[in-house]
């Protein structure tokens, strides 16, 4: 059942919006802090959510091709 829900365009768009929101929050955190350790800790979520957004775009494209 979860696979059916996850393979819908609506679910992928919601995941993409969430990923983009976290990317923006990570960027704001990087530019607002001055210590190096916080910048390093903010870069990791930025990378993870960037990869997640690319995967969401890929899944949306794949779902559209199936239809």
The tally of structural domains comes to 1
Query: Could you estimate the helical fraction of the residues in percent?
Result: over 70%
Distance between the termini: 19 Å
Content-based structural category: mainly alpha
Strand content: under 5%
The description of the largest β-sheet is: none
- Mean of residue pLDDT values: 83
* SSE arrangement, N to C: HHH
Poorly predicted parts: none
Radius of gyration: 15 Å
DSSP strand tally: 0
Layout of helices and strands:
Layout (H helix, E strand, L loop, with lengths): L1 H5 L2 H24 L3 H31 L1
Helix pairs in contact: 2-3
Describe this structure in words.
This protein is mainly α. It has one domain. It contains three helices and no strands. It is elongated. The two termini are 19 Å apart. The chain crosses the membrane at residues 12-33, 39-60.
List keywords for this structure.
elongated, mainly alpha, 67 residues
Outline of the structure:
With 67 residues, this protein is mainly α. Helices cover 90% and strands 0% of the residues.
